[in-house]
Specification:
By secondary structure, the protein is mainly alpha-helical. Helices cover 57% and strands 0% of the residues.
């Protein structure tokens, strides 16, 4: 069914149904995310969970040893790395990785670049987090997540409407179709560019 013959409400419903096609987070990640909400959790307990996922453990060590932290020596212990990162940064890193894994393991239309999408999502999340620190916000802790998930609708459209994806994206970018909350699409209310083809 083409974009022209499918009502916009039908497009929206089909895209939202795609949420059920997304793979679940790994059991280790689920346990880590749940543990991060526990105020009494220790760095040793968090490190023990992280160590059960070699990719996550490697990413935590790589993040702590990156230029961003500008440490003089190399951190080789996951427990030490977790203590350097802290709860908020560990949560953000874990969420970024898990979402990247989810998108990468999902069958999306040809031309979709999960790598480009992930890079944009993480960059947006980091920028939102940095802005939240500088601005007076009610819930600064949620800025990273908001930035990370700001374009999740693109994934749902690509997954739920693979045949219409290019048409839907072009319609939004050209202002032919407005978002349901607006009467007329403006440059600020249009969908972002499609992830670059890689």
């Amino acid at each position: 069914m083409s974009l022209a013959t499918l009502p916009s409400a039908g497009l929206r419903d089909k895209a939202l149904e795609a949420m059920s096609k997304l793979p679940p987070f790994s059991p280790v990640l689920n346990k880590l995310m749940a543990s991060l909400t526990d105020e009494d959790i220790s760095f040793a307990e968090l490190a023990a969970i992280v160590e059960k996922d070699t990719i996550l453990a490697g990413s935590v060590l790589r993040a702590v040893n990156s230029a961003f932290y500008a440490r003089r020596g190399t951190v080789n212990s996951v427990k030490h790395a977790v203590s350097v990162l802290g709860i908020a940064k560990l949560r953000n890193l874990s969420m970024s990785m898990s979402l990247a894994r989810m998108w990468n393991s999902t069958a999306l239309p040809s031309g979709w670049s999960s790598r480009s999408f992930n890079q944009h999502a993480v960059a947006s999340a980091i920028l939102a987090d940095l802005l939240a620190v500088e601005l007076d916000t009610e819930y600064a802790e949620g800025a990273f997540t908001a930035g990370l998930l700001q374009n999740v609708g693109l994934v749902l459209i690509a997954l739920g409407l693979p045949a219409q994806y290019d048409s839907v994206l072009k319609a939004y970018q050209t202002g032919t179709v407005a978002f349901p909350t607006t009467k007329k699409a403006t440059s600020a209310s249009r969908m972002p560019s499609s992830p670059a083809r890689s």
